[in-house]
């Protein structure tokens, strides 16, 4: 069972596993190029997911 | 089970719908976001922490954040909220709101550490906001 599924104009993202040992994400792109802001959101989301899984501890001032 | 029994009927109903997925994090699909969506942290078939998200103004509203008593001070609340940040961003929401009682200094410090800012002072609570981008 997927833990998260979301589809927008650019891609469909499915988070299949989210644990400290394994973060399994499937991204299926459509033909449209990803807008820069959407890319930034993806980057930020990935960082946050890594933080949530305990794989990345940010600088305290940036938590 | 004591933790589960302390949850509202609505939340328990959602829990049973989502099933128990060990050692992982679960949340409902986007289609469910028109209502309150529970987001949970699991370990060994047990819910350790839970929070709810629902659409609110230009973003989402976080409520009912609870970490089980015997799992306090392990940063599980922080991890759950960061997971909520990521899910909200992926769902196209750039702002998160929450409301904290003025006398709940622990919760105020917690949300401040996650860069929530007080934006409205009400009689009993502060409405807090966090830009997710």
Overview of this protein structure:
The complex is a heterodimer of chains A (63) and B (133). By secondary structure, chain A is α+β, with helices and mostly antiparallel strands. Chain A has one domain (4-62). Chain A is 27% helix and 30% strand. Chain A is built from 1 helix and 3 strands; from the N terminus they run βββα. Chain B has one domain: Aminopeptidase. Chain B is 29% helix and 37% strand. Chain B has 4 helices and 7 strands; from the N terminus they run ααββββαβαββ. Chain B has helices spanning 2-5, 9-18, 76-90, 105-113, and strands spanning 25-27, 37-43, 46-56, 59-67, 95-101, 117-121, 125-131. Chain B is globular, with a radius of gyration of 14 Å. The termini of chain B are far apart. The model of chain B is unreliable at 12-31 (pLDDT under 50). The interface between A and B is medium-sized, with 24 and 27 residues.
Q: What are its keywords?
A:
heterodimer; A: 63 residues; alpha+beta; three-stranded antiparallel β-sheet; 1 helix; 3 strands; 27% helix; flat; B: 133 residues; Aminopeptidase; seven-stranded mixed β-sheet; 37% strand; globular
How would you name the oligomeric state of the polypeptide chains in this document?
Answer: heterodimer
Q: How does CATH name the architecture of chain B?
A: 3-Layer(aba) Sandwich
Low-confidence stretches of chain A: none
Named CATH topology of chain B: Aminopeptidase
The side-by-side strand order for the widest beta sheet of chain A comes to 1-2-3
Number of structurally distinct domains of chain B: 1
* Low-confidence sequence ranges of chain B: 12-31
Q: Report the portion of residues of chain B in β strands.
A: 35-45%
Query: How much is the average pLDDT of chain A?
Result: 82
Number of strands of chain B: 7
Fraction of helical residues of chain B: 25-40%
Ends distance of chain B: 37 Å
Gross morphology of chain A is flat
